[in-house]
Amino acid sequence: MSIDPHPRRTFLRRGSAAIAALTGLGASQHLTAQTTLEQLHVLCSGPAGSIPDIVARRVADQLTGRYAQRLTVENRPGAAGQIAVNALKAAPADGSTVLLAQGAIATVYPYLYAKLAYDPVLDLQPVSLAGEMTLALAVGPAVPESVTNVRELAEWMRRYPKLANVGSPGTGTLPHLLEAMLFRAADAPWQHIVYAGGPPAMVDLLGGQIAALVLPEGLFRQHKATGRLRVLATSGATRSSYFPDVSSMVEQGFRDLVVREWFAFFMPARVPAATLESTSQALRVALARPELVAAFAESGMVAASSTPAALAARIAVEQRYWEPIIRTAGIKAE
Questions:
Q1: Phi, psi at residue 305, to the nearest 5°?
Q2: Which helix (H) or strand (E) is 2 found in, with range?
Q3: How far is CA 239 from the centre of its chain?
Q4: Are 135 and 259 in contact (CB under 8 A)?
Q5: Which of 50, 246, 270, 318 is the most buried if burial means most Cβ atoms within 10 Å?
Q6: pTM for this predicted structure
Q7: What is the pLDDT of residues 134-172, one digit of tens each?
Q8: Cα-flanking dihedrals φ and ψ of residue 101, to 5°?
Q9: CA-to-CA distance for 119 and 125, rounded, in angstroms?
Q10: How many Cβ atoms sit within 10 Å of the Cβ of residue 180?
């Protein structure tokens, strides 16, 4: 099963149609005129400088003075998003607080953790998609230059299993799950090396301490350009616009491996419907602005928005996708 089902494209088409309709009606001016918020508080599940932080602050810049007079971004990282979600749960359900987090808090973590401090259905109200990123598999100097694709990497790993160390930014992250799926499908032995985030894993990849690493593709662009690492495959349904010379996992015969990291906005579950819709509309307009789209692209992201209903439907689809994969792989996190 692909993680890029037809409903997703339907959701994005609906979001694009909504943006076009709103723009035609002068929606951004209307939203400014109807602003009732003095301040909007944006909680972020990632630390300063992380991809979620970049998303939260870029969107906050677009909303300031348009949807709310003042915006603050508060980083609440740690515990697989549970700290940030708990802060959202404790916030008043009046529309003054939103959470920007990775979609995994609703789609993956409920099956990965034996006990969560929140229920994604009861405690989170989906508002809008924010952005998406394709993942990529890269190898460093520990792997011979003769290895140019996933099949060749798997063959090298079978020959040298003691060298088949593969890093990830954490147990249960999407890069880790994709590695588990990919190397199982390729019948390759591998050792999972867990890091506290992507940067230290990248350092060891470049230094030859680990053989391979999966991260969002944008993080590999600079080092690929200098030849310090090689990107062997990307996880989108089609080739990446950043790496048009690299074939996707689908092209290499792994047809079910279409995985994209995504981020979304959530509000407390008891937010009134009218408040939820006005916030979602404001986010959809902000995410369509050319300057934000360009800023996201610089970080290897695609700006994307959705209605609350479309985001809720997407979460349900991906929950059905990830649950059996996590259970079959036997991946658990504490």
A1: -135, 175
A2: none
A3: 18
A4: yes
A5: 246
A6: 0.79
A7: 999 999 999 999 999 999 999 999 999 999 999 998 888
A8: -150, 165
A9: 11
A10: 22
